[in-house]
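Sequence, please.
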């Protein structure tokens, strides 16, 4: 049923899209045979054929009901154990048609920028195609005579959605049905990266013409307090994915980019890193030592900063000298300079710097 891995914390799972497709296929089999199976084989978007346990199967005349419980593997996913439910109804007047609808717990799209119809269900294009493919594969003998209406619902979806960024993206009332391969990989950077790009695209549909990129929750809270006039949808936690966020901003035609961060990640950006993860490259403390020297710090202080392991040390030493605000402003200016060189004349840039308690230190634009 589920791929196992001997290494702890690496067990893969299945996406909401894959589980929805399996439930839909089981319900169609129920309509075909008069009984929903306890186990169903489902074709995933990546081409794998996987068996899923089916719960709550029942057939009532021209309708059938089936449910698959999502197992996210070792991924800390808020939709783990979600009950992906399919209700399939025969459409005698619409032979050959497969119509997909969202029921309770599946979000409704209310904003542009997601590649989905406004007012429709938040079922992404790949899962949508995968659900239909499985329905057609299982129900092909009946499709000459009738169509199928497939309604996907998630009883716990409304509560689960509160732990996601769906509302910020304009997806209201439930979770999204997602997944490009059908497989969930634990702590998937690809999934997070995709959510960053999606968030920037949504910001690009708004009239404000700005996206605010932050490196995490603390920096986002700080920048939201600094810019209370902006709607939540323009704020995107890019994490380490500067390259993807900036690329999406270019594609979306945004005219202003604001970056909020603390000394460590901002140093990575200033030195030209486009992926700022700790494992990708060390902080260039030499750059920080040069900034300190430009501000008049003593040679021995600059040497200590150069030999330090962290950017935070540089900030603390400059604070002790009463040069903290100037130092962080110079760092912010270096971030602007670096990004200007990479993205010439594409948008106005502003950088806001906070300390480790989320208090503003400096800004540059």
């Amino acid at each position: 049923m589920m791929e196992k891995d001997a290494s702890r914390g690496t067990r893969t799972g299945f996406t909401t899209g894959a589980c929805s497709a399996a439930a839909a296929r089981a319900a169609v089999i129920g309509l075909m045979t008069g009984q929903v199976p306890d186990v169903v084989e489902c074709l995933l978007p990546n081409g794998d054929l996987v068996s899923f346990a089916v719960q709550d199967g029942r057939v009532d005349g021209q309708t059938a009901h089936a449910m698959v419980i999502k197992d996210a593997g070792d991924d800390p996913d808020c939709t783990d154990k979600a009950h992906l439910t399919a209700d399939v109804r025969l459409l005698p007047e619409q032979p050959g048609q497969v119509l997909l609808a969202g029921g309770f717990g599946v979000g409704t799209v209310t904003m542009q920028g997601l590649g989905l119809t406004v007012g429709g269900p938040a079922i992404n294009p790949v899962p949508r195609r995968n659900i239909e493919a499985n329905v057609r594969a299982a129900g092909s003998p009946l499709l000459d005579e009738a169509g199928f209406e497939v309604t996907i619902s998630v009883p716990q979806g409304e509560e689960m959605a509160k732990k996601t960024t769906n509302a910020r993206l304009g997806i209201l009332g439930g979770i999204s049905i997602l997944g490009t391969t059908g497989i969930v990989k634990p702590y998937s950077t690809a999934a997070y990266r995709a959510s960053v790009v999606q968030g920037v695209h949504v910001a690009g549909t708004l009239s404000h013409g700005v996206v605010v990129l932050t490196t995490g929750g603390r920096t986002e809270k700080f920048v939201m307090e600094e810019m209370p006039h902006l709607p939540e949808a323009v704020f995107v936690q890019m994490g380490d994915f500067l390259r993807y966020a900036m690329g999406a901003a270019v594609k979306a035609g945004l005219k202003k980019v604001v970056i909020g961060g603390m000394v460590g990640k901002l140093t990575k950006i200033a030195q030209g890193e486009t992926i700022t993860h700790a494992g990708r490259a060390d902080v260039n403390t030499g750059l920080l030592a040069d900034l300190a020297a430009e501000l008049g710090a003593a040679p021995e202080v600059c040497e200590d900063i150069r030999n330090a392991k962290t950017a935070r040390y540089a900030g603390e030493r400059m604070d002790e000298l009463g040069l903290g605000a100037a130092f962080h402003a110079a760092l912010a200016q270096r971030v602007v300079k670096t990004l200007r060189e990479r993205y010439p004349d594409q948008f106005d840039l502003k950088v806001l710097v906070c300390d480790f308690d989320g208090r503003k230190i400096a800004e540059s634009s």
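Residues 194-364 form one domain.
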